[in-house]
Specification:
The protein is of the alpha+beta class. The protein has two domains: 224 residues, FAD/NAD(P)-binding domain (3-Layer(bba) Sandwich); 117 residues, 2-Layer Sandwich (D-Amino Acid Oxidase, Chain A, domain 2). The chain is 37% helix and 31% strand. The radius of gyration is 21 Å and the shape is globular. The model has no long low-confidence stretch (mean pLDDT 96). It binds flavin-adenine dinucleotide.
Length: 389
Amino acid sequence: MHTQVAIIGAGPAGMLLSHLLNRAGVEHVVIERVSREYVLSRIRAGVLEWGTVETLRECGLGDRMDREGHVHETINIAWRGEEVLTVDTGEMVGKLMMGYGQTNIQEDLYNAADTAGTTIFFESSDVELHDIATESPSVTFICNGVGERIDCDFIAGCDGFHGVSRVSIPASVTTEYEKEYPFGWLGILSETPPLPHLLYANSSRGFALCSMRNQMLSRYYVQCPLTDSVDEWSDDRFWAELFDRLPHDMATQIQTGPSIEKSIAPLRSYVAEPMSYGRLYLAGDAAHIVPPTGAKGLNLAVSDVRYLSRAIVDHYAGEDDYLESYSAMALRRVWGAVRFSWWLTSLLHRFPDQTAFDQRAQEQELGYLSTSRAAQTALSEQYVGLPYE
Ligand SMILES: Cc1cc2nc3c(=O)[nH]c(=O)nc-3n(C[C@H](O)[C@H](O)[C@H](O)COP(=O)(O)OP(=O)(O)OC[C@H]3O[C@@H](n4cnc5c(N)ncnc54)[C@H](O)[C@@H]3O)c2cc1C
């Protein structure tokens, strides 16, 4: 089979790229390791930058998001026990955020792909990339017990952190930047009404976050040791720990219920440079990972794909400038989000080796944030998302 673009991975990056290429009439196929049902069962991101919201609207994927999503007007940070610092991003930088689950975006993308008749090879194994340094790369894999080979002009590596694309680039041309954090996030999903706004907490017992997916689906997290396992955390223990980390009047507003999902995620920052090699272009988690504190992972996947789809469409119109500058342009935005996510993680968590000096410096920074319009503007500008180039 020959196509113009072979997309590896049918997560948000791969399927948004597919959708944008469909709209521009660029032929492609998508190759995915697991089943459609499995992809749709993964509970992940839920806070969208305003640029992501506008990107989804512009390409015809905004209707359900606008109906079911929840606009966040403020970021709230509880600290020093009962105090809550509220940053009004609309007032500071004229932009808001949208709460809309990654699972919903994934459903919207699969529905759009069904309408367009996109070929997606689900449950593909032994995916291998060949001749990526040449103008005639190919991908081989096994699907339904049959060996397949796709010859193409480009390969888009949208297969997440554990995918095959990034490791197909010779190690000698890749530079990796990595930081691991000495704690994880224990998250639960519960079918209960959420708080009306996002609430972060820096407490003496560690970080906590109250977030939402929709009006009857809440997402809560607490910082936990990496050595903890989900079995050690009954729902009762989780709710008690969450409440101990929040101001009393916030905790009393939360309606508890049984968790319908519970997981522990490690926190990591990672960037691989460059994001392209020959005819292979990486997008999303395949090239970079951020700790979820800044809610940037999904939003970076969207901005990478925005740049990459424009570059590929331009190539078929005879113009290669965006293709040649893809990696450098994407990395500028990636590093903005990587730095911001690292900073917010450092500001809001208790580190196991945190000294009294570190603690006072953290409190000072939160105090500065609560009194300085300049500091709140800088936080808002980065939280709602830096502009696209
Ligand atoms: C627990 C958790 C919570 C998160 N919370 C947030 C949040 O609040 N806000 C935020 O912005 N981000 C968050 N993220 C990050 C966000 O979910 C990711 O950044 C986003 O999924 C990236 O999309 P992607 O398409 O690049 O990668 P993925 O979603 O990982 O998709 C990659 C796809 O490629 C497939 N694949 C892998 N290997 C192969 C292969 N060899 N061949 C073919 N296919 C392959 C995978 O099965 C997968 O479907 C969270 C992530 C996790 C794990």
